[in-house]
Amino acid sequence: MLKITSKQNAQLKQWRKLATTKGRKQSGQYMIEGIHLIEEALQSGAKIKYLIYSEHYLAKNKPFKMKHSAEEVLLADNCLAELSQTETTQGIFAIIEMGSKPTAITKEFKRILLVDAVQDPGNLGTLIRTADAANYDAIILGTGTVDVYNDKVIRSTQGSLWHLPIIQADLNEWITQAQQQGTTVLATALHQSAIDYRQVEVNEATALAILVGNEGQGVNQSLIELADQSIYIPMPGQAESLNVGVAGAILMFKFVNE
Predict the structure, then answer these.
(1) How many CB atoms lie within 10 A of CB 146?
(2) How wide is the angle at C-alpha 173 spanned by C-alphas 167 and 177, nearest 5°?
(3) What is the pLDDT of residues 57-106, one digit of tens each?
(4) How many angstroms separate the CA atoms of 257 and 251, rounded?
(5) Cβ neighbours of 49 (radius 10 Å)
(6) Which of 140, 91, 78 lies closest to 111 in space, CA to CA?
(7) Which CATH architecture has domain 111-255?
(8) Of 61, 63, 43, 60, which is closest to residue 51 (Cα–Cα)?
């Protein structure tokens, strides 16, 4: 097992860059931290390149027995802070290859979540986890949306990011492509032509995409105009709006993929 003892180690410095969006894009890799997430990644078949154990982790635990092809690395405790992004680290990390993503919408995609410029990592993680729970087939992340491989996003998904395709792309192109495949696109909006989401009638054969937007500005107007129908969630109380994660959950389970 390779052992890293110096903070100046070249490999350690490369891994440290994975804490940034730029570093992840350049390397095509991302890092996860913690036992639960690594178990989920292994069970889901994620392409793990390195499993990194700290000295204090191995003092209390054995290396993973689950089948994997990752190279195992021992990290000296004095280097632990170079990688950890949590307040109380468990001292175990994995470096994962991003891998390939679908480049086109297929007829097998019966339920799609479209995300326009959602910036809060917790909100995006909640949307991904809910889409997984509602059995959605894919998630498309538009321009301005927080990086799906952001550490806080990954942790808030609780492993759901490995259960369905998540694609970062131009929503204009993907909405048009979805419609060409016969998919009905519903955009969340608050304007006169929007209808109560409960009035939308779909059946099991209907291919559907739900478009949710930025926490402050909502869905971009140009995307709303592309959609087949604008919808809203009635709120009988005094709140002006719903959190995008909550709104997304209501809509995804209304149009659940059974």
Answers:
(1) 20
(2) 90
(3) 999 999 988 889 999 999 999 999 999 999 899 999 999 999 888 888 88
(4) 11
(5) 13
(6) 140
(7) 3-Layer(aba) Sandwich (3.40)
(8) 63
Is the distance from CB of 227 to CB of 186 less than 8 angstroms? yes
Q: What is the CATH number of domain 2-97?
A: 3.30.1330.30
Decide: 161 and 138 in contact? Cβ < 8 Å. Answer: no
Q: At what angle do helices 121-133 and 244-254 cross, to 10 degrees?
A: 10
Give the domain ranges of the chain. Answer: 2-97, 111-255
Distance separating alpha carbons of residues 125 and 208, to the nearest angstrom: 21
Q: Is the pLDDT at 200 greater than 80, yes or no?
A: yes
Beta pairing partners, 54: 75
Average pLDDT, the chain: 95
- Containing 12, the helix (H) or strand (E) segment is helix 10-16
Whole-angstrom Cα distance, residue 209 to residue 9?
46
Helix, strand, or coil (residue 148): coil
Distance separating alpha carbons of residues 226 and 172, to the nearest angstrom: 8
Distant-in-sequence, close-in-space partners of 73: CB < 8 Å, separation ≥ 6: 1, 2, 3, 4, 50, 51, 52, 53
| 179 SS3 class | helix
The token pair at 8 is 């100046």
Alpha-carbon gap, residue 177 to 171, rounded angstroms: 9
